[in-house]
Amino acid sequence: MRLFKTVHDFDYSWHTVSAAQWQKYPNPDCPHVQHVDVLDSSVDPETGVLRIERLISVDQKAPTLILRAMGASSTQYVREVALIDPKTKTMTLSSKNLTLSNILSCEESITYTQHPTIPEKTLFSQQATISAGSAVSRMASMIEDWSVKRFQQNALLGRDAFSKVLERFVVLAEAKEEAAATSGSK
Amino acid sequence: MSSSIGSECTDLKQKYDTCFNKWYSEKFLKGDTTPECEDLFKDYKACVMVALKEKQIDTLLADARKESPFPPPSSSSNSEA
């Protein structure tokens, strides 16, 4: 599992930053993002928090070897849920990959909050947890199991083989001693 | 504005996006949470769901929603569970 974290200050108000977030794509600096679709949009009547669920289509260009081995295309999908609370001026975006999840899991959490002392600034924090998926873990377990078994087999072979060497060694050593004793006693 | 996963849905999406962006800045951020773009969203979403089904992403999505609701949508949501 790998963790990634970064923080940054934007010199714009939280209102501006949160509104601009919806117009981030298409972006020539992010050519990997191909499409963005809104799947759900609703305001919680009790809290006034807006929840938006989106599907982001990404052309990831992962190493071809990996893609071919997994039979995957280079287009992957990410599901994101955003929560926007205009009262606390907090915007949280949580996302996780939808495809290739048995190979890799990438969970990301981004928050935009109004700066505690400078209202014209917005604090940005981004965290990601990246870990190998269950298929890879299973393969890792299989490789380990196989390796341990093979190691045990080889260890047994090695021990038996060495035992035979020791027997011959002892026999030869005893024969030499006898020969020396016999020739010495003559 | 970004295109849709279903190329035939991009027009509907952009109509919805225009409405949403206006509502978000002029109403929602100013404290008025009355939804305004629901009809446009309905048409756009119906189109996207067809595209998702064609690409077989609908089952992946349903599983992901069960596994990580993130938190779950409120009862007044537009989505189907």
Automatic annotation (TrEMBL), chain A:
InterPro entries: PRELI/MSF1_dom, Slowmo/Ups
GO cellular component: mitochondrial intermembrane space
Residue ranges of the TM segments: none
Domain named PRELI/MSF1: residues: 1-174
Pfam families: PRELI (PF04707)
Protein name: PRELI/MSF1 domain-containing protein
From TrEMBL, chain B:
Gene Ontology CC terms: cytosol; mitochondrial intermembrane space; nucleus
Keyword Endoplasmic reticulum attributed: no
Matches recorded under PROSITE patterns: CHCH
Pfam families (UniProt xref): UPF0203
Record-level GO BP terms: phospholipid translocation
Single Gene Ontology MF annotation: phosphatidic acid transfer activity
Range of residues in the leader sequence: none
Keywords: Disulfide bond
Keyword Glycoprotein appears in the UniProt entry: no
Family: Belongs to the TRIAP1/MDM35 family.
Name recorded for this polypeptide: Mitochondrial distribution and morphology protein 35
Species the sequence originates in: Umbelopsis vinacea
